[in-house]
Amino acid sequence: MKLSRRGFNKLALATLASPLLARAGAASLQGQGAGHTLGWNDDWRFKLGDEPAASDAGFDDAGWERVNLPHWGRLEAWNVSHTYQGFCWYRKRLRIDEDLRGRKVWFLSEAAMQVADVWVNGVHRLRHAGGYLPFGVDLSDDLRARGEAVIAIRLDNRYNPDVPPGKPPEQLDFCYFSGIYRNVALRVGDALHITDPVLAGSVAGGGVFARCMQASARRAVLDVSTHVRNDGDDVAAFVVHATLHDADGRLVARAETGRQSCNTEQSATVRQQLEVDSPALWSPESPSLHRLTVRLLRDSKVVDEARQCIGIRWLETDPRRGFFLNGKHRVPCGANRHQAYPYVGNALSDRAQYRDAKKLKAAGFDLIRLSHYPQSPAFLDACDALGMMVIECIPGWQHFTDDAVFRAAVEQNLRDTIRRDRNHACAVLWEVTLNETYGHDDFFRHMVDVARQEYPGSQMLTCGDAEGHDDALIRSYDVPYSGWDDATHSRPSRAHGAMSLHREYGDNQFGAYSRYDRGSGEYLMLVQAWNYQTALNQQLQLPWTWGQCAWEAIDNNRGMSTQVATCGAMDLFRLPKFLYHFFRSQRPPGLRDPRFESGPVVFIANYWTAKSPHDVVVFSNADEVVLLVNGREVQRRKPDSGPDVPFGDGSGFDLNYWQHQSGAPRDERASNVNQPIYGGGNARALAHPPFTFKDVTFEAGELKAVAYIGGHVVASQVRKTPGEAVALAMDVDLQGMDLAADGSDLVFVHATVVDAHGTTVPDATQLVAFEVDGPAELIGDNPRMAEAGIASVLLRSRKASGMIRLCAKAPSLAAAEFELRPRKPG
């Protein structure tokens, strides 16, 4: 059964909130019956820099800045390498009603960068080392004694070799952005409660753990473990009741235990089985989600409850046949993702995470590698709902410190990642080694064992680097990564016949010559797309390839370089390059989904100017494309089907053509990209080769591509020769999801330079100034120079209702205006 639109609205949108996020929160906490979670992002006090006295409960923070979370320690430039490396403080006071003094209350944080010290009422309660995973503090005793709690958090974002990744920031290929950059919440429960999966610290335990033990179109069996703790004064008797509802709200399975008991200050694990007939299986094409509800009852009264969306699916790998999902062989089209935005770093709202996921899904990606750290729970929620598999990575990048503190931190990161994300349908692979960190075989073999301790059973699929490790370690991975061979410039399998996953392809195979931004122009964006096409075409023919992930989906800032890594299919502002549309064209034309852009694709990778390439490249998943100039048919073509020609001066595949041109030193190789591309070949293994129209004579006016499948028109696109720039046009990249009036939501605002007919002027570089009126603020460089005809800035909501009015202005151009009304949270 496919997930209906009605079911998606009801279920998937609910998953946009992470387990820690709820829709209300304030400084005063009131009773609400059974266990519940309240978002607590609003109205924190913030100070950049160190303030040792701020740990005291009576410290006067009235002069500090008032902020909402997620929050950045310091706003950064859009192109930044040296992010803020220092201290910052957050403080907030919590008061509770009298009837809550006997309840359990926890403060929970999804993540903060990167060493967090937490004081409650002036008493140091926790030090959490690590910037990507959750932590929390039990406030119950503090609130019972005083009825209030002053929470003070000091973040230390200085370089720390003991905290993975542990790499000096100036040597790291991404950035340590500062701040409490994810959600915080308050969890309220009884002395008898379902524990938090991370705070419980229990191997393969804590919270609710739902494992699929069997799944087919006929029947599914789920094993549900619930971890219960009794912090009361007496032995507690209880019952656990579990229900499973499908996407349409129908009850499909239920189970109830007999009477259980738990001693005071002890925990108990209750296991139940849920059997589902004719289950709706989760897959990228049909991401059917079920709602699992586990209730804890004492004396027939619900005292706690855990709810989450899960997907029923079955994973298998075969060392010589590859990967299977629900019994179907798959070679997923994947990419790598860094989570950061310009200016605010990692401080994305949950809705911004969803908008990112939606753009990646629309690009045709069914597998996302979360490089190189655990990313937001909200992003995984979105992947569950949209149907994207993910590779979960622990924090690490080309660094290992062989001491007990670092090793213990790496191990704990793996345990906490699995405990946090094990119930996500999208989580299909767990990268258990530190990225591109070689040697240390005994420790990494231990990490594989740790993963299988935390997730017993066949649905735990581990993966990791094959390079530099011994054969025994490689065999212990369910999916080894393909090893780089410096002698042959290829990625052969090192696993003695086992299939492997190419975790990063495209950029590294061409050095820096896949790194072009949108302002580089048509030719260099075509070079980038050609490099990835050539690499993917080769990958799909290698017998050992399980699948592959492009490096990377989105441009990213780098600590090690003042240059943005521009090898992404989208830029930092999530604006597509030509490469994005190449990947989009590899999706089946019959896949039509109302949640994201899908179906037949036709995209003209040409601006149709007098300076544009005369060979016109069209990306399409159709079987025939007709090209028309000013209404006249000039060429009709089938997909490119030429040979896989050597790209360079060698024979066979030469993905490193730039290394072999007349012995040119590396700093002189940029000119080597100026050789023929899109010759009609290097596409025979692609699902949908491009269409290369040779020597199309330019004629100002309209260039149109019409796509056919089975002789029927399925899609078309028009390019018009741009005229003189006369105006600006503005849009807000909502991705079908309203801006939330919660004081935290973020969206990109784009101002496009257009001619009199509304056509983008792609060489426009005007300086554009943005203005906003209403409950929102602009974040980022303002004014900002247009790149390839578009200037972008970030818009952040305020916690207030009312119309937002935006204006963009540039000298000699007509201004643009845009209105949007944010949606009230809840």
Notes on the structure:
The protein has 826 residues and is mainly β. The protein folds into four domains: 5-188, Jelly Rolls (Sandwich), CATH 2.60.120.260; 208-310, Immunoglobulins (Immunoglobulin-like, Sandwich); 318-625, Glycosidases (TIM Barrel); 727-820, Immunoglobulins (Immunoglobulin-like, Sandwich), CATH 2.60.40.10. The strands form eleven sheets. Strands 29-28-27-26-25-24-31-30 form an eight-stranded parallel β-sheet. Helix 5 packs parallel to helix 6 (441-454) and helix 8 (522-539) runs parallel beside helix 9. The protein starts with a helix and ends in a 6-residue tail after the last strand. InterPro entries: Beta-gal/glucu_dom_sf, Galactose-bd-like_sf, GH, GH2_Domain-Containing, Glyco_hydro2_dom5, Glyco_hydro_2, Glyco_hydro_2_cat, Glyco_hydro_2_N. Residues 323-456 form the Glycoside hydrolase family 2 catalytic domain. Residues 82-186 form the Glycosyl hydrolases family 2 sugar binding domain. Residues 1-22 form the signal peptide. Belongs to the glycosyl hydrolase 2 family.
